[in-house]
User: Fold this.
Amino acid sequence: MIDKLIYYMQYPFVHYAIIVGVAVALCSSLLGVTLVLKRFSFIGDGLSHVAFGAIAIASVLRLIDNTAVTSALQLTNNMILVLPITVLSAILLLRTGQNTKIKGDAAIAMISVGALAFGYLILNVFNSSANISGDVCTTLFGSTSILTLQPVDVWLSVGFSVIVIVLFILFYNKIFAVTFDENFAKATGTNVQGYNLLIAIIIAVIIVLAMNLVGSLLISALVIFPALSAMRLFRSFKSVTIFSAVFSVVCALIGLLISILAGTPVGSTIVAADVVAFGICSLIGLIGGGARG
Amino acid sequence: MSYIEAKELSVGYEGEVVASHINFKIDEGNYLCIVGENGSGKSTLMKTLLRLQKPLAGEIRFGEAGQTKEIGYLPQQTVVQKDFPASVQEIVISGFQKKSGFRPFYNKEEKKQAEENMRRMGILEFKNRCYRDLSGGQQQRVLLARALCAAGDILLLDEPVSGLDPKVTADMYDLIESLNKEGITIIMVSHDIGAAIRYASHILHIGESIFFGTKEEYIESPEGKYFLARQHKAEEAEENIIEAAETEVIENQNTKN
Assistant:
């Protein structure tokens, strides 16, 4: 097994996959705590479906341009279209969440299924490739495409991850204040709406990034599992945040290695690793919590 | 020197007036209690005081010659907080949020002041404990320490004792009183008229008619008499129910024996 691993490690595409995997896992875990506590988990889910629709449009547009390269899911080309659409939807979702006419969760459900339906419809009508169901499947569940990354894609992912991490560290205290007590923050004159917007934009970026790793249906897992696991074990915001980052990176690495060795799909293997680790954390939390009384 | 002064103030939201013709003045060191029934506009007035909402009519003036004083706010607890993984220290220091501006981290001075405020509230020993593991009274002290970090001169407390048991409630009122004696101006929104009469120096009653004055004036006023009588009746009714329940329990036990 070790031999096999060493053998695979010679190839640059494996290095790329690991670099992107770690970067994406790290930044997707950071805002997890905020999302879970602000009851925003579903926004992540909704946005990932929007991103799916956007990818469908992107691949059809490429067909018309006739600049189709190798894969229908080439990262860099998609990013130009998918990122703005997802960020825009994030802003819209947040706005409707504050509006009382359509309740936040209903709006999210509406947008997400709508995007899903239109995405599939577009892909079908504009028959972009011979293997539609294969394309759809890889977009939804992530694909081996992480193993076919080009250096440009790697730089793009790493670049965005660094931006997300730097923003998170700079605004860490503000994000904490806004998450813990919006009313208090508002009353002391903090621009709560501004920070909510910032959070939404960061989420959108994270989702577009993570889409390449685990696919649009499984993104929420990457955001939520680390946070929930950390909350079982730790009791301060800082320790929860740090642990969820470590948790996410370790699970992503384990998932990647297993999928390389066993030939399983990357996305679902990583999420499966997350689920198992969450179970272990819950168990430890239960035993520890019981002892503490 | 008056901290806050309202003249013919009307408050409400989306153009709908909830309470109008409110006049009051808060001076340094006052202990003002805002009382009134549910839906009378207490919380809308509070939002206006916190400058989250613009007054619909009239004017409200903060501080001398446009020099605005920061108000430290003790909000009611939210559902989110019940399950929030955060240490006491993290929460208290987040009171400096606004003061730190665009500086991303808190400085030494702020950390020291946060410690000091935790000591004042008697929660320094819980510094590293998790907020959700504390009792209701302790949680309120944490939020009070945070409010002190946000502003040291005026505190606005929104139903500070809701959900606390009688012993803890009394402790909380004592704590607030001691803060007031240290010179901090207190504005408390409450429906606990008994406590208002016991602790406050001034009372603002909103409802059908508006009253503002010292506590002594309030007790003699028609609004005060009416409200006190009602409160008294409600308390009596509650006592009767408890008594009735107790007798029933005793009777049941007797029949069993």
